[in-house]
Specification:
Elements: H1 3-31, H2 40-63, H3 72-91, H4 104-132, H5 142-156, H6 162-189
Helix pairs in contact: 1-2, 1-3, 2-3, 2-6, 3-4, 4-5
Amino acid sequence: MDPFEYIVVLTSLILGLGIAQILRGIADVVAHWKQVRFSAAQMIYAVVVFIIHIQDWWINYEYSMIPRTWTLFDVLIVLIFPILLFIQARMLFPTGSRSNETDMVLYWDDQWKWLYGIGISYVLVSIWHNIHFSQLPLIDSILQILYVVVFLTFIIGNIRKHTYHTIFAIAQLIAWIILIAADDMVININ
């Protein structure tokens, strides 16, 4: 087993735990559909976070192509992203002492600042990955910087209107679908 394979096992475990959290949360909402006050922003954002989990798992494969000597610092940098994703996945739906909550709109209203703050954190880590591992210039991270600006606009502006959060979640979902489709086209062209 080469060093990268050793590292990717741990990241895959953490990402798998996050995916399980998201799927469990969605399954709980569906299973108790009649008792739950549905939040479109929360559910669409959960799909976005799910896609980001899969994207991180996929992009980690690219690290195997980069010849390098892995250091503990490198491993910690790689682990930060899936750890943040797991925390966000865990917070997307009520758990622990809040596990009996059925008002997802109220839950979203209580959690969105934390979720967006974690979103800012993992986007910044992603930018660092681009610079540190892929040797990309900062200008290549302009879309990620814009993502941070929108998250910050919601947090600093204390934008609470559920409709705006739903629109933002839809915009993120569309953006991720476009990015995945564009990446797929690049792979097929080569």
